[in-house]
């Protein structure tokens, strides 16, 4: 399996054979209640990610994050007090047949009824962006998922980005793009009217997702990319390594990075952008 994915795509080896489904589901609200379930609920409540009447398309790539997210939504539906519908959507962008079979087998075992649809994204990316495929691939995947969600009559699309994705995005923008932007917990699509993207794992740390998956005995898909195979890892992998180094001397550096996007002091920055308009602090310097 690991030979199919690009460098930097970690393969999670299970700690044991697959445990019974009921034990996997129970572990979410028992063993992992504090680091996973409670933080999932916190994001939903704080940002109103799930509301009465919603029909949510939950994107299931087959990776560790999306598998957990799918099971969390099932538990929320089972135990929660919100009246909503869910559809599980999964896209095959051109996986090796063994990877496709693994995706289907995992979802069958976990009782995740996916709408699996095919696309030729890997082939297109290999033709137009083979040197740096990851960014373009992510954008095309999202567009395909939006289309499927719209086709199914959904008003929200849930993606499995987690706490670590958020802080890595902040540092990527600061260090490589020279700007300050974060990954938002929800936003309205500009290209698909009536659709909203939500990130329910916003507060869930990656290490606990890994532990949950490994304890379940499930072999999740890694990026499974036929295009990036053998290429040097992208900038996000470099940022992951940087954060690991920083945590050796300051264990809460990840939380500080995350909180920086909640504590922007508008009186102490040189400039900002809003609605595509750029502003300088000098524009308001002489105001009383």
UniProtKB/TrEMBL annotation:
A Gene Ontology BP annotation from the UniProt entry: tRNA processing
Gene Ontology MF terms in the entry: ATP binding; transferase activity
Cross-referenced CDD domains: TtcA-like (cd24138)
Cross-referenced SUPFAM superfamilies: Adenine nucleotide alpha hydrolases-like
Domain tRNA(Ile)-lysidine/2-thiocytidine synthase N-terminal residue range list: 55-218
Keyword set includes Ribosomal protein: no
Keywords assigned by UniProt, alphabetized: ATP-binding, Nucleotide-binding, Transferase
Signal peptide: none
Binding positions for ATP per the UniProt entry: 59-61, 65, 89, 160, 165
Descriptive protein name: tRNA 2-thiocytidine biosynthesis protein TtcA
Organism: Clostridium sporogenes
